[in-house]
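pasting for the record
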Amino acid sequence: MTTRIAPGVGANLLGQHSAERNQDATAYVGNLDPQVSEELLWELFVQAGPVVNVYVPKDRVTNLHQGYGFVEFRSEEDADYAIKVLNMIKLYGKPIRVNKASQDKKSLDVGANLFIGNLDPDVDEKLLHDTFSAFGVIVTNPKVIISYVCFSFAIHES
């Protein structure tokens, strides 16, 4: 187990159980490249606000992370800011997905699903997110599905 000390926060153990974690101040980080480490996430997210804890679950057999993790901040406002500025940035060429760890499940059932077709092959998830966030809160990140036809989905709150 690794111990980290963040300025003004004190010692925190990586791998802290979710019951001990402040869910409102925690960001879920997904679509992580296998090269991403807890240390790298710490260094990236501390630029957005004071980080209390970083946890990346690992496979018990391979000891490799499972492609996602959690970053706990000192406050909910810090987590919200990190989500806003770091969602969809590319890490090792892959756009990471950064959302609230304690997302209200009811909010996923409300709103609109948008299908956007005939996309230019250069359009990526970040561009779609930036474009459509001007029209409302995007509940789930857009996904570009590449096939012989390019299209995407975006979900907005009502």
